[in-house]
Amino acid sequence: MAELRIEDLAVSVDGKLIINGVSFGVRSGEVLALMGPNGSGKTTLFMTIAGHPRYNVVRGKVMLDGEDIVKLPPEERFLRGLMVAFQTPTVVPEVRLSTLITAMINKINGRKLTDPAPPSLVNSLMKGIQEVGLTPAHLSRGINHGFSGGEMKRSEILQLLMVKPKVALIDEPDSGLDVDGVFAVGKALLSLANSGTAIVLTTHSAKILHVVKPTRVLVLNRGRIAAEGGMELVEEIEKVGYENFLKAR
Ligand SMILES: Nc1ncnc2c1ncn2[C@@H]1O[C@H](COP(=O)(O)OP(=O)(O)OP(=O)(O)O)[C@@H](O)[C@H]1O
Ligand SMILES: [Mg+2]
User: Fold this and answer.
1) What is the 3-state secondary structure (H, E, C) of the chain?
2) Any residues with Cβ below 6 Å from ligand 1, and which?
3) What pLDDT does residue 244 have?
């Protein structure tokens, strides 16, 4: 059983306080939906948990399975089971998507990054691309090189499905996806949670949440948690927007 626990986290970027006292926890198999208006700090929270050096932890803890990982470099956090799917994925034309996925699996299994993909990985890759709606051709292209917006999102989900991390932070997996894509990615995330991954996901749309069915919903506003509950919060946001959450509740 894996657990990510964020305790009283405060984060500044270029000297400006963006996250101010956020606490929450998520365990294996749970899906935590993190909602909140543009600029409320969702991506900042994920980047900080991932260990991006631009984000300065002013106070608080990032506990993964009881260990405070807040001072560890990003690679160590990945090796301990933490993985992020980015809101704006990076394009790396020189490295094939299949090479990246093979290297991640090799790293986790203590092999050399450049070792060939084991046959079991090749089989799961073929299943995975079907699940997320990509093709073998995408695997042979540079990472996200010339990928459409939706294809980049599908590629991020494919990477998660292959690695099966203990904890996945997934930043707007549905932005730019067509209707079928939202359903396919939602189902893929549900199966990832059912296989034991703890998921925190951000979104601006209720559609994917109707597929993924989050265990809990948090609403972030100006770097603080404004509300915590279930799907009733999502329904309220759909009906009247964030208005009620911008005031203190
Ligand atoms: N260097 C900086 N100086 C000042 N403010 C910054 C700086 N970097 C980030 N911010 C601010 O931090 C806030 C939080 O940004 P973040 O990307 O975390 O929001 P978000 O909740 O993910 O929004 P979205 O829903 O649009 O993705 C934004 O208002 C952003 O402008
Ligand atoms: Mg964001």
Assistant:
1) CCEEEEEEEEEEECCEEEEEEEEEEEECCCEEEEECCCCCCHHHHHHHHHCCCCEEEEEEEEEECCEECCCCCHHHHHHCCEEEECCCCCCEEEEEHHHHHHHHHHHHCCCCCCCCCCHHHHHHHHHHHHHHCCCHHHHHCEECCCCCHHHHHHHHHHHHHHHCCCEEEEECCCCCCCHHHHHHHHHHHHHHHHCCCEEEEECCCHHHHHHHCCCEEEEEECCEEEEEECHHHHHHHHHHCCHHHHCCC
2) 13-14, 16, 18, 36, 38-44, 87
3) 87
CATH number where 224 lies: 3.40.50.300
> What's the CA-to-centroid distance between 203 and ligand 2, angstroms?
9
Q: Kindly give the number of the ligand 1 atom that is closest to the alpha carbon of 220.
A: 21
Residue nearest to atom 31 of ligand 1 (CA): 39
33: number of Cβ within 10 Å: 24
* Minimum CA distance residue for ligand 1 atom 7: 13
* Structural domain range at position 53: 3-246
Q: Could you say which residues of the chain have pLDDT below 70? A: 248-249
* Number of compact structural domains in the chain: 1
pTM for the structure as a whole: 0.96
What is the CA(55)–ligand 2 centre distance, in A? 14
The neighbourhood of ligand 2, an ion, using CB within 5 A, equals: 42-43, 87
Q: What is the pLDDT of residue 247?
A: 76
Q: What angle, 0 to 180 degrees and rounded to 10, lies between the N-to-C axes of helices 149-163 and 179-194?
A: 10
